[in-house]
From TrEMBL, chain B:
It is a multi-pass membrane protein. The keyword Transport applies. Residues 93-301 form the ABC transmembrane type-1 domain. The chain crosses the membrane at residues 25-52, 99-119, 131-152, 179-199, 226-251, 280-300. This is ABC transporter permease. GO terms for biological process: transmembrane transport. Its main location: membrane. It comes from Tritonibacter mobilis F1926. PROSITE patterns: ABC_TM1. Keywords: Cell membrane, Membrane, Transmembrane, Transmembrane helix, Transport.
Length: 266, 311
């Protein structure tokens, strides 16, 4: 082999890759940077200030939407994770069974069907339910979010279950542990990182959702993303950058944590 | 939960099988109830709605009609009853398919070398590089779209820079064009291309590449004849993973297309909003779903060829 010849090198590939990373991060970095702009522009830098964070903090609509977003994400991820853990326990580590295909299709539906299709289908159904019951609360959004969060909570739990050592459970029941005891003291502690990862993923997915929320929400039920979508048509001030930065921070923290929790599996 | 699907030594095999079946469905109940109420059930209702007559103020009249499906591609002239193609819809279909394909191609051009770059890093560094790809992907799609908007709008970063440096006098109108939608979708969906290509690339056996060079292949020949064929399933999977969400995109064309560059998702919304034709909206939504399902069949075949663990 020629000296210094690297078989892995392809000309230009490294440059494109570097360009790709810059492209991925540059717009986000600019967005974050201008949230600290002292001026009203999102393109001309006029010095550092916290004023847009202060103005977002004092904005009643933003406060209202933030609280709603957090309540919605917390309750949907709790519901979705509970349902997903139970479903994962039922469907993992067993021989093929009747109805398996239908169940998997249902669990994965939110991943396959375009969001806009789900959104209009929920609009149709909830419009009927709303007119019959008169109830216009947060329940519809929690139900809708729980549904599309289920596959995201299901995946890490299932992966964890599949990688789990069966002999420990076997030993537990050999020592006369009841199935419930075996679950509580052996399965659950091992499953915990998967559950946590699933719940965090579900939380982020719910927090970020725009399309389904936009179609399901009743009047005055803006979440942070739908509020932002509504604001984009107007003259944009760095206040929206400040809100974006706060949302980004939550997502990045959660995703990074998810990544490390998931890594401990190996 | 008293009889989990765990081994229970005493009872007969039939009893065990029956118990296992019962506990399985019991455990599945919460998930299936939620999903049928807010996913599969509503989808069936959409099918029904696509065969009804539109109500005057939105909603539907319960009267069977094939018009919605007919109206997806054709329309009857209001006065002359003459049949003609629904140009407006076909234009949107065409734009959706065109932009989705172009996005997939752009993502491939940028994503393939990037995946290759990551796959050729030392093993312990690859996860960190992939995390760098994943972080933008898991952050809010609206915010990422908005970041692009700030970059390319008339008072945005690019135009401000160009005008300050004297290259141009007037801002270049980039926002609210097909170009801006294309850039936005490429930016937003790029990680979906890199992920499956990287998964294929990671298992690439570089001894084969070395063998190629030993036989006097050029770098381009190695790329075309050895690397590309071996990672092709990943390329196909990535292209479909990008194509599918583009086709159903709603937020990106709405924000960056500004109501001018409608894509399928926006056309569907329009029927439920301003145009108050719910049955047509339902038929359009199902048309979109059908195209997506066809693409997903190809996807499953692409990853199936490479083995299950790559999903």
């Amino acid at each position: 082999m020629r000296k210094g010849f690297d078989v892995r090198r392809q000309p230009g590939f490294t440059a494109i890759a570097m360009g790709c990373f810059i492209l991925l991060y540059l717009p986000i970095i600019l967005l974050v940077a201008y949230s600290f702009n002292a001026g009203e522009s999102i393109a001309i830098w006029e010095g550092f200030s916290w004023r847009w964070y202060a103005s977002a903090w004092e904005n009643e609509q933003v406060k209202d939407a933030t609280i709603r977003s957090l309540i919605l994400a917390a309750s949907s991820s709790a519901v979705a994770t509970t349902a997903a853990v139970l479903a994962a326990l039922a469907t993992t580590r067993s021989k093929p069974w009747r109805g398996q295909t239908v169940v998997f299709a249902m669990v994965n539906q939110p991943l396959m069907v375009p969001e806009i299709v789900t959104a209009v289908s929920l609009l149709i159904v909830f419009a009927v339910v709303k007119s019959f019951t008169g109830y216009t609360g947060l329940g519809y959004l929690i139900l809708a979010h729980s549904a599309f969060c289920i596959p995201f909570a299901y995946m890490p739990v299932r992966a964890r279950l599949q990688g789990m050592d069966l002999s420990l459970e076997q030993a537990g029941s050999d020592l006369y542990g009841t199935p419930l005891q075996v679950f509580r003291h052996i399965t659950l502690p091992q499953l915990w990182p998967g559950i946590l990862a699933g719940a965090m993923l579900a939380f982020v997915i719910s927090l970020d959702d725009v399309v389904i929320t936009e179609f399901v929400k009743s009047a005055g039920q803006d979440t942070l993303p739908t509020y932002m979508l509504g604001q984009l048509r107007r003259v944009v001030t760095p206040e929206i950058n400040a809100i974006s930065t706060a949302l980004l921070a939550i997502s990045v923290i959660m995703v990074t944590a998810f990544f490390f929790i998931n890594k401990t599996r190996k | 939960m008293s009889d989990m699907a765990l081994s229970d030594p005493a009872p007969s095999p039939e009893t065990r099988a029956r118990r296992e079946r019962r506990s399985r469905w019991l455990l599945l109940t919460p998930a299936l109830v939620i999903l049928s109420l807010a996913a599969s059930g509503p989808l069936l209702v959409v099918v029904i709605y696509s065969f009804l007559t539109p109500g005057d103020y939105g909603g539907v009249e319960w009267q069977f009609s094939l018009d919605p499906w007919f109206n997806v591609v054709a329309e009857r002239d209001f006065f002359t009853e003459e049949l003609k193609l629904a140009d407006a819809h076909l234009l949107v279909f065409w734009r959706s398919i065109k932009l989705s394909l172009m996005t997939a191609i752009l993502c491939l051009i940028v994503g393939f070398p990037t995946a290759y770059f990551i796959a050729t890093r030392p093993a312990h560094r690859r996860d960190m590089w992939m995390l760098l790809i994943m972080i933008p992907f898991w952050t809010n799609l609206l915010i990422r779209t908005f970041a692009i908007m700030e970059l390319i709008r008339n008072q945005g970063t690019i135009n401000t820079l160009l005008m300050a440096s004297g290259v141009i006098d007037e801002p270049i109108q980039m926002l609210y064009t097909e170009f801006s939608v294309l850039v936005g979708m490429t930016y937003v969906y790029l990680p979906l291309m890199i992920l499956p290509i990287y998964a294929s690339m990671e298992r690439l056996d570089f001894n084969l590449v070395e063998a190629g060079y030993d036989l006097y292949a050029t770098r381009l020949q190695v790329l075309r004849r050895i690397i590309f064929p071996l990672v092709k399933p990943g390329v196909v999977a990535g292209s479909i993973l990008v194509f599918v969400p583009c086709l159903g995109a709603y937020v990106t064309p709405r924000v960056l297309g500004g109501g001018k560059q409608l894509m399928l998702g926006n056309l569907i919304e329009l029927q439920f909003g301003q145009l108050r034709n719910w049955p047509l909206g339902a038929a359009l939504a199902l048309t979109l779903l059908a195209v997506v399902m066809v693409a997903l069949v190809f996807y499953v075949r692409a990853i199936g060829r490479e083995g299950e663990h790559n999903a």
